[in-house]
Amino acid sequence: MNKPEVVFFWFRRDLRLEDNVGLFHALDSKCPVIPLFIFDEDILDSLPKNDARVGFIHDSLLKINAKLKKIGSSLLVKKGKTKDVWESLIQEFEVKEVFFSKDYEPYAIKRDLGICELLEANKIAHLSFKDQVIFEEKEITKADGLPYTIYTPYKNKWLEKYQLLAPVQEYDTSEKFSNFYKINFIFPTLEQIGFMESFIKVIPYNLKNVTNYHETRDFPALDCTTHLSPHLRFGTVSIRKLVNWASHKNQVFLSELIWREFFMQILFSFPKVVTNNFKSAYDGIQWRNNEEDFKRWCSGTTGYPMVDAGMRELNETGYMHNRVRMVVASFLCKHLLINWQWGEAYFAEKLLDFELSSNVGNWQWAAGTGCDAAPYFRVFNPEIQFKKFDEKGIYIRKWIPEFDLGYGEPMVEHAFARDRAIATYKAGILK
């Protein structure tokens, strides 16, 4: 029996049908297209069974599948090790081409290299496309071709290059939907994948407050953030549409999107940052790494309201306001002298918007050990941050209901912790 001749489009971090570059080109193929998603066991096996991000991915795939079913097609969802899944698909179908969007994280690069080698061994063409960023890899570099390690010149070059393209091309896939393979694949439940529903949910993004973003972004009680970050992380929103829109709405908001690409470029160019300080001179810092102190930080019981509210928000919702993230990260690294890697790992476990490049980049920024980082002698005063950005205590009281009932004393006095941090950094910086 002849196997059906097909083309595959492999969804990964681009969970949408609209303005999806790789899908746009796949649908131009001579053979019908099977849309595919693989729940990768090499990733899933390390996650709790109620991980909210897996639930969000499953919900996003369900929405894609519902749209495909309206045109007589469906999404093929598999679970397993990616190489095993692809070997099985190659046996089942006459695969002519495979299309997918690029990913720039070390694990993904290694995984994709292995799959491409498998496809080539079976004489199957594969094509990858830039989709999760405006500029990738080595598209924004200094005059000598080296990557930028300071944000502002990177941003200026980014904006200069964007203006030559603006608006960035968007890709309308809707007129090509007739080339999807007509079949009704069985869509697995979350339980069949080995997971269960979480009480934590990804919030739909909201762009209504972007116009005033520069005025409201630092005040957590206002709840004026867009909640875009998980959607960017998993590609349920198009970065091209978003940037084209944001460039006319608010430059500070656009700058935040550029920060994301800056950290992606740093991770791609300097993969050591996943496990090591960008600034090797800081490798000599003698962290205290007190486990009891770390537990109090994790549980939001440090005695510093802004720190504790942020950690409780994170633990209960998977979100944390960006201003508060800076405060809690600085507190862990500077006040408690706990290695940024401990905090980075905890955020990776809890954040709905966890993205390796941004998580590592921002933690090293807070610790002072990264590229373009806050200087080591900059130590946020959590009390001043509280009074400046939550003057009426609205955010604090939301997450610390016992705040007015005799809230606990700070676990470490600020002036003492600041002096200790500066002295420890000074002694640890390698000459």
UniProtKB/TrEMBL annotation:
<dbReference type="GO" id="GO:0071949">
    <property type="term" value="F:FAD binding"/>
</dbReference>
<dbReference type="GO" id="GO:0003904">
    <property type="term" value="F:deoxyribodipyrimidine photo-lyase activity"/>
</dbReference>
<comment type="similarity">
    <text>Belongs to the DNA photolyase family.</text>
</comment>
<feature type="binding site">
    <location>
        <position position="213"/>
    </location>
    <ligand>
        <name>FAD</name>
    </ligand>
</feature>
<feature type="site" description="Electron transfer via tryptophanyl radical">
    <location>
        <position position="340"/>
    </location>
</feature>
<dbReference type="InterPro" id="IPR005101">
    <property type="entry name" value="Cryptochr/Photolyase_FAD-bd"/>
</dbReference>
<protein>
    <submittedName>
        <fullName>Deoxyribodipyrimidine photo-lyase</fullName>
    </submittedName>
</protein>
<dbReference type="InterPro" id="IPR036134">
    <property type="entry name" value="Crypto/Photolyase_FAD-like_sf"/>
</dbReference>
<dbReference type="InterPro" id="IPR002081">
    <property type="entry name" value="Cryptochrome/DNA_photolyase_1"/>
</dbReference>
<dbReference type="GO" id="GO:0003677">
    <property type="term" value="F:DNA binding"/>
</dbReference>
<dbReference type="Pfam" id="PF03441">
    <property type="entry name" value="FAD_binding_7"/>
</dbReference>
<dbReference type="InterPro" id="IPR014729">
    <property type="entry name" value="Rossmann-like_a/b/a_fold"/>
</dbReference>
<feature type="binding site">
    <location>
        <position position="253"/>
    </location>
    <ligand>
        <name>FAD</name>
    </ligand>
</feature>
<keyword id="KW-0285">Flavoprotein</keyword>
<dbReference type="GO" id="GO:0006950">
    <property type="term" value="P:response to stress"/>
</dbReference>
<dbReference type="InterPro" id="IPR018394">
    <property type="entry name" value="DNA_photolyase_1_CS_C"/>
</dbReference>
<feature type="domain" description="Photolyase/cryptochrome alpha/beta">
    <location>
        <begin position="5"/>
        <end position="134"/>
    </location>
</feature>
<dbReference type="InterPro" id="IPR036155">
    <property type="entry name" value="Crypto/Photolyase_N_sf"/>
</dbReference>
<keyword id="KW-0157">Chromophore</keyword>
<feature type="site" description="Electron transfer via tryptophanyl radical">
    <location>
        <position position="287"/>
    </location>
</feature>
<dbReference type="InterPro" id="IPR006050">
    <property type="entry name" value="DNA_photolyase_N"/>
</dbReference>
<feature type="binding site">
    <location>
        <begin position="225"/>
        <end position="229"/>
    </location>
    <ligand>
        <name>FAD</name>
    </ligand>
</feature>
<feature type="site" description="Electron transfer via tryptophanyl radical">
    <location>
        <position position="363"/>
    </location>
</feature>
<dbReference type="GO" id="GO:0006139">
    <property type="term" value="P:nucleobase-containing compound metabolic process"/>
</dbReference>
<feature type="binding site">
    <location>
        <begin position="256"/>
        <end position="263"/>
    </location>
    <ligand>
        <name>FAD</name>
    </ligand>
</feature>
<keyword id="KW-0274">FAD</keyword>
<dbReference type="Pfam" id="PF00875">
    <property type="entry name" value="DNA_photolyase"/>
</dbReference>
